[in-house]
UniProtKB/TrEMBL annotation:
Protein name per UniProt: Amino acid permease
Positions of transmembrane segments: 33-56, 68-90, 111-141, 161-182, 189-212, 232-250, 271-297, 317-337, 368-387, 393-419, 449-469, 481-502
Subcellular location: Membrane
Membrane topology: Multi-pass membrane protein
Species of provenance: Streptomyces chiangmaiensis
Signal sequence, renumbered to the chain: none
Keyword Transferase: no
Taxon lineage: Bacteria, Bacillati, Actinomycetota, Actinomycetes, Kitasatosporales
Keyword terms, alphabetized: Membrane, Transmembrane, Transmembrane helix, Transport
InterPro entries on file: AA/rel_permease1
Major location category of this protein: membrane
Length: 538
């Protein structure tokens, strides 16, 4: 089916239930995710401790202290996107959220390419999250710097640091893959614990650093620490990579919709809460770090980032203790991203839309999770690390590339959603309905078109910014043309490979999405019998 599922202004068949037996999908995944665990999935993917610590030094080196202002700009843009996603999550609470939403808005051909790009982007995001361990673990104990020994340079841009990052990242991927295989309740418990530690860690860090100021908050008004020449605007745009990398993945709560209790009510709220909490916490963390840093001009902050600020200002014991909180956040982030990618792959596979779909679309009867897809995502991320083991730009290149892919996939939802809103404007726009408590589904109402249009404009601009062939992002050697253009080359090759498979398998004639109602009604006894029994929410 290459056309949209149905005219969105209509509510077919008088409604439905959250039980997927009535959706046309058998309830195979187990519902073990409660409200906090759903929030934890989105918050862990964003993971301000992981990503801010990983890329704070990069943002500062590219834009100086004034790079802070990229944060509220990216936050405002992504909040517009999250509001659009929250509406869709209430109406289509189903795994493979981005793929499913795009397919039902624009047809399965568009949806397939969006899902294909999203899977590749998520695998690379898992890899980028895993190597964040290098920004933390050697600061806790020098013995974690295995390549070159404890005395080697652990900075992420050095050869020894980059190679050690690959090693630590692969070890972390083994651990997160095992947790994912064990079951949804184990995964939910692990991410919930990780998020609790992360929130406590962020609060503690912000309070401590605010009480150790070297300068006032007005530091963000000047590009102090920027060593570039010429106009500042280009440097400011480049420094926005840090904020763009952090504030993605809030949609991962939608990936777990089929495993979430009351998803029509829970998922839209957790998508927004995850982003808003991360936006506020991240802004405070950046400002407090800039205020507390011992120096903004000696190169230490650009090289060591917030890890250097902690150990320099708080001393060995307290600084390392707080870095342990960051290490827990890195684990939870990697786990959440891998889980999200596995659910996306599973959702496409059960439609017969991927190679080896019969294996990828299976759910373990024992654990209630798609084991094969979890392994494939973990192995794919490890391969992405290993093939770049001698590339000192692995951190910046992987970060920018994976986020560019996610932004492209997000555009594959927001653009057809905007087109649908405009076409259906005279007949009410998105369909109305009720959630599991009988309340109206989350809706932007008359603000939908304006919010959606601004979201598309922001995403398009940031996508161009992310894939721009900057040497300081993609080619630290400064002399390898294909590295500099690697983002465009990789995206082009990925699309070409996908198009070849799509055409060879004639998927435009084979993929047939099953119906998902836009509103909730109480399930029948038969549908209730299919659902997961006895498990309380995590």
């Amino acid at each position: 089916m290459s056309r949209p599922e149905l005219p969105l202004a209509q509510d077919p068949g008088g409604g439905g239930t959250t039980g997927h037996a009535l959706f046309g999908y058998q309830q195979e995944l187990r519902r073990g995710v409660g409200g906090f665990a759903s929030f934890a999935a989105g918050f862990s993917f964003v993971s301000i401790l992981t990503t801010v610590f990983q890329l704070f030094g990069l943002g500062f080196s590219l834009g100086g202290a004034a790079f802070f202002w990229t944060w509220p700009l990216v936050f405002a843009g992504q909040l517009l996107v999250a509001l659009c996603f929250a509406e869709l999550a209430a109406r289509w609470p189903i795994s493979g959220a981005i793929y499913q939403w795009s397919s039902r808005l624009a047809g399965t051909t568009t949806g397939w390419f969006v899902g294909w790009i999203m899977i590749i982007g998520q695998i690379l995001t898992v890899a980028a999250a895993a190597i964040a361990a290098q920004a933390v673990l050697p600061g806790i104990w020098s013995g974690f710097q295995i390549v070159g020994g404890p005395g080697a340079d652990p900075s992420v841009g050095s050869p020894t640091g980059a190679q050690n990052a690959v090693l630590l990242g692969c070890v972390l991927l083994v651990i997160t893959t095992v947790v994912n295989i064990l079951g949804i309740r184990q995964m939910a418990a692990a991410t919930s614990f990780g998020v609790t530690v992360e929130i406590i860690g962020v609060l503690a860090l912000v309070l401590i650093l605010f009480f150790l100021p070297e300068r006032g908050p007005q530091v963000v008004a000047h590009p102090t620490g920027w060593a570039g020449h010429g106009g500042y605007f280009g440097a400011f745009l480049a420094s926005s990579l840090m904020a763009a990398y952090v504030m993605v993945g809030f949609d991962s709560a939608g990936e777990l919709a089929e495993e979430t209790h009351s998803p029509r009510r829970t998922t839209p709220r957790t998508i927004l809460r995850a982003l808003i909490t991360s936006g506020v916490g991240g802004a405070l963390l950046i400002v407090s770090g800039l205020m507390a840093a011992g120096s903004l001009t000696d190169g230490q902050l650009a090289a060591g980032g917030l890890s250097w600020v902690l150990t320099d200002r708080l001393g060995g014991v307290l600084g390392r203790l707080l870095l342990c909180c960051v290490a827990v956040a890195v684990f939870a982030c990697t786990l959440a991203v891998q889980t999200s990618g596995a659910r996306m792959m599973y959702s496409m596979a059960r439609e017969g839309a991927l190679p080896f779909h019969r294996h990828l679309g299976k759910v373990s009867a024992r654990t209630g999770t798609p084991i094969t897809t979890s392994i494939v995502v973990g192995v794919g991320a490890a391969i992405a690390l290993v093939v770049n083991i001698r590339q000192s730009a692995i951190f910046t290149a992987l970060s920018s590339l994976c986020i560019a892919l996610l932004y492209l996939a997000y555009l594959g939802v927001t653009v057809p959603l905007l087109v649908t809103r405009i076409r259906q404007r005279g007949s009410g726009g998105l369909p109305v309905g009720v959630d599991e408590t009988g309340r109206p589904l989350f809706s932007l109402g008359r603000w939908g078109v304006a919010v959606n249009a601004l979201a598309v404009l922001y995403q398009a601009g940031m996508t161009v910014n992310l894939i721009w062939p900057r040497a300081e992002i993609y080619d630290l050697t400064g002399g390898t043309w294909w590295l500099r253009w690697s983002a465009l080359l990789f995206i082009g090759l990925s699309l070409a490979a996908g198009a070849g498979y799509f055409q060879a398998r004639r998927l435009h004639r084979r993929i047939e999405l099953r119906h998902v109602p836009h509103t909730h009604t109480e399930p029948t006894l038969d549908a209730q019998a299919v659902a997961e029994p006895a498990c309380g929410p995590v």
